[in-house]
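Limitations
The structure tokens in this dataset are predictions for the assembled complex, not deposited experimental models. Users should treat interface geometry with appropriate caution, especially where small molecules or nucleic acid strands are included. An illustrative entry is reproduced here so readers can see what is and is not provided.
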Amino acid sequence: DTGVSQDPRHKITKRGQNVTFRCDPISEHNRLYWYRQTLGQGPEFLTYFQNEAQLEKSRLLSDRFSAERPKGSFSTLEIQRTEQGDSAMYLCASSGYRGEGTGELFFGEGSRLTVL
Amino acid sequence: SQQGEEDPQALSIQEGENATMNCSYKTSINNLQWYRQNSGRGLVHLILIRSNEREKHSGRLRVTLDTSKKSSSLLITASRAADTASYFCATVYNAGNNRKLIWGLGTSLAVNP
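Predicted assembly:
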């Protein structure tokens, strides 16, 4: 399967714990995006990478959130000291650079976080 | 903040009927995209229409774009129960040297067998 993969698919944690999500994009894609989605809402942009460079972070991304993309391949999203409000689906997407900016995004199946 | 706004928020139809969803946006765009999301799953790209295009087809999907009204519509013809999902529009606009993609809140479509 050469699609975007995310791990874990589901994570239940207690408030105050740290969690980390991993995203493996489509191998030839240089752009990688993280979104958060709550029930009944559209995806909310968190951050995006072009290769290994983190080019933009949303104001939604508090200092408890950190994302990395070492070597421009897979990416991790870590949430420290989780809060109940962090409960959401965390979506990763990748896209290839075609010289025209944002084209089609390819999404993974998401990582659902439940903070108790 | 969300730029795209879909309407209706929810739509329920019978199998075989056509479903039409609309998306309105606020700023000039580079392109507009429609995605589908089955419950609890990731989003799947359906179709992209550029700002200089007015209509695009893909199988049972037809997308129109009216830049003067800043709106787009997605038509699904001869709907099937498997079309039950949420549908999102995403608008791409120029912001300096970057292009940004903004999502709407989605239309929840239920196709009843």
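Some entries come with short summary sentences. For this one: The interface with chain A takes residues 2, 4, 30-31, 33, 35, 40-45, 48, 88, 90, 92, 94, 98-101, 103-106 of chain B (CB under 8 Å).
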